[in-house]
Amino acid sequence: MKDNQAKYPQLRFKGFTDPWEKRKLGKTAPLRGGFAFKSSEFKSKGVPIIRISNILSSGEIGGNFVFYDEQNNDDKYILPDKSAVLAMSGATTGKVSILFNPTNNKVYQNQRVGYFQSVEGVNYDFISTIVRSEFFMKQLESVLVSGAQPNVSSKEIDLFEFAFPKFVHEQQKIGTFFKQLDDTIALHQRKLAKLKKLKQGYLQKLFPQNGSKFPQLRFSGFSDAWEQRKAKDIFNSLVEKGKEKLPVLSVTQNNGVVYREDVGIDIKYDRKTLNNYKIIYPGNFVISLRSFQGGFELSNKLGIISPAYTIFRLKDKDSHDNSFWKTKFKTFDFIQSLKTVTFGIRDGKSISFSEFGDLKLLFPSKEEQQQIGTFFKQLDHLITLHQHKLEKLQELKKGYLQKMFC
Hints:
- By secondary structure, this protein is an alpha+beta fold.
- The chain has helices at 25-28, 124-130, 134-143, 154-158, 168-205, 231-234, 322-328, 332-337, 339-342, 353-357, 366-404; strands at residues 21-24, 31-32, 47-50, 66-68, 84-87, 96-98, 108-109, 113-116, 161-164, 227-230, 235-237, 249-252, 256-259, 278-280, 285-287, 296-298, 303-305, 310-314, 360-363.
- The longest helix has 39 residues, at 366-404.
- The protein is elongated and about 75 Å long.
């Protein structure tokens, strides 16, 4: 469709049939630059300043804030509640966040932070949706200056063109709809973040810290000191090959052991070498190529995996629980202990079983292991459910953006 032709979105609220019209962003929400506050005058309290470092890649406003003396500046660079602000340089260049300030306390706008100003006759929720959409990002890519210090220009952004509903009432309908959807997404993001934080807290409390043999928090009925053994006394290495027809697996940091075709990238490999791949069974552990970051995973699949990986399993399943050890390998203390065997190892080389085998590991009775393993299994399931729900909401928003804009 040519630019001078009428624009009609695929999906509309009842009662609206008029064509949309092209408008420049500078005429509907001009981008205002911030003030160059002097870093030498930053305070530990006072009026908070939004800097580019406070506009996060997640789309939220956070991080470490600095403050300014209220008496040292006029009110020109105060940001209203629900301001759409843009990182104009730095690591998150092009990212737009919404400032939530329901109490309307003063918040200052620093240099290189752009504020999309409110214009009479234009619905701001509609603008907030536009500047966080793929329509905005596509135009941004054409003016983004990349390099060591990526940046964008307010003059170029003001020239961006978008299709707008002719009547502000339709803008309001659309803006309110996406605001409610954004609020729901933000709520689930906060719930997910709380669950992940809760898990980290329990990982610290349910496992001994700082050389102790007693965890801070325990399930009822357990009080004995945890036992300490070398890893090679608990696990043994597994090297079995010659099954090239089994599915090829990969190890990921976020999703554990997955089928290679589900990784999302085209990983090249020579099928002639598959006979040399290691067999991994459900219930086997694998040390990934990023093992110095804690890449110990428990497989729930039968398949073959690159010979570069290290595979091991429990020697005595009557005395140990896989779910406990899966969780143990994700604790901060365990990951820190890997430094003693990963010195000098770079990305691309796995820890050998002999290196891992000399690590001293603490563990309780199998009964307590099972309690801990089950607890974290249920918590992980809850986190996964929230993650999937959040992803569905984000996909729903993406679909509505495509259908309700043109």
